[in-house]
Design goal:
The chain is α/β, with parallel strands linked by helices. Helix content is about 50%, strand content about 15%. The protein has two domains: about 1-135 and about 270-325, Bordetella uptake gene, domain 1 (D-Maltodextrin-Binding Protein, domain 2, 3-Layer(aba) Sandwich); about 135-270 and about 330-350, D-Maltodextrin-Binding Protein, domain 2, CATH 3.40.190. A three-stranded parallel sheet has the order 2-1-3, sandwiched between helices. Helix 2 crosses helix 11 and helix 6 (about 165-180) packs across helix 14 (about 330-350).
Length: about 350
């Protein structure tokens, strides 16, 4: 018996030693790779918006937390409400960890709701994490006659949006179908910054899907000078910083309506997502996740984010993958109702 125990102990020690050697070799491989290869962050929008702002502050710090301390480069790749970047990172980007991407929080759910133009499988992407959970807002330009959310049920409101898959289009279409609002969505703007310019020019009366973080970082003067009126908070949880605007899920008339709203606005939980291509070597995905998590806690990063007016309330890549798995199990009838609302909206979009 003692001999058997000794043999088992020796085998266990041997296995542990082998695993440590493998892990050490993997760590060395990651460090060696990033010493000679820069890390590129693909941003699915043009400069000036919230996704770009987060990416640039992440880029300034994540290299220090990554084995091999790579240089980090931000590359903007706008197009189709950031779907161009999502398709690129999934199908074209090298699967070696040299490129990661950030794009619309709505795109992980897009295949369920409207698969036009989709060339990716969200469940196969290597999710790294999100820099923040988010609450978006519906707001009107001051003086346009919209002062409460109820006003949007009484008269048509023109809202600017980028592509059909963007929150700025999806959210108002869902609200029209579920809550009886009368948003008229003007699509075709290339990025979030362009939708804001459209509102300033009077081409639209407001927005029904702008992230609060993007608004505070890129248009803080609008809030400071009362140039806009916030009509509703779009998410699963209220943000105290926004004030007394009602939470959209609380406006549901019944449980069925609330279920649709919760499915759509769950994406706010991973507001500024980062992902790697599918098929990435596991040790490199783990290194990127670890570096991202460490960056979110880094004092210099947090100081820079605060200066830029960016909220930091991260979730991990593992949490993102788990939430997406749950959302992809949403009952078919709820998905069908949401899809119908989006199709009806697309038919009326200008």
């Amino acid at each position: 018996m003692q001999t058997m125990i000794k043999n088992m102990s020796a085998a266990m020690l041997s296995t542990a030693a082998t695993m440590m050697a493998v892990n050490h070799a993997a760590a060395q491989d990651v460090a060696a790779f990033y010493k000679t290869s820069p890390l590129q962050i693909i941003v699915g929008y043009g400069p000036g918006g919230g996704y770009d702002a987060y990416a640039r502050v992440v880029a300034r710090h994540i290299g220090k937390k990554t084995p091999g301390a790579p240089n980090v480069i931000v590359q903007n790749m706008p197009g189709a409400a950031s779907m161009k970047a999502a398709n690129y990172i999934y199908a074209i980007a090298p699967k070696d960890g040299s490129q990661i991407a950030t794009f619309s929080r709505g795109l992980p759910m897009q295949p369920l709701l409207d698969n036009q133009g989709v060339q990716y499988d969200a469940l196969k992407l290597g999710w790294i994490g999100s820099a923040a959970a988010e609450t978006s807002v519906t707001f009107a330009w001051a003086g346009t006659g919209f002062t409460t959310f109820e006003d949007t049920r009484q008269k048509e409101m023109l809202v600017s949006a980028s592509g059909a898959g963007a929150d700025s289009a999806t959210f108002p279409w869902i609200m029209n179908a579920v809550l009886g609002t009368k948003f008229r969505v003007i699509t075709g703007y290339p990025d979030a910054n362009s939708t804001m310019i459209a509102i300033e020019r009077g081409e639209a009366q407001g927005s029904a899907g702008t992230s609060w973080g993007s608004l505070t970082s890129s248009r803080g003067d609008w809030l400071a000078n009362n140039r806009i009126v916030v009509l509703a908070q779009l998410g699963l949880k209220s943000n105290p910083a926004i004030g007394n605007a009602p939470l959209i899920v609380d406006l549901a008339k019944n449980a069925a309506d609330r279920q649709v709203l919760e499915m759509i606005f769950a994406r706010q939980s991973f507001a500024y997502p980062y992902t790697a291509p599918p098929g990435l070597p596991p040790e490199r995905l783990e290194a990127l996740r670890t570096a991202f998590n460490a960056t979110m806690k880094d004092a210099d990063f947090l100081r820079d984010a605060t200066k830029m007016g960016l909220e930091v309330s991260p979730i991990t890549g593992e949490e993102m993958a788990e939430l997406l798995d749950k959302l992809y199990k949403t009952p078919a009838d709820v998905i069908a109702r949401a899809r119908a609302a989006i199709e009806a909206g697309k038919a009326t979009a200008k």
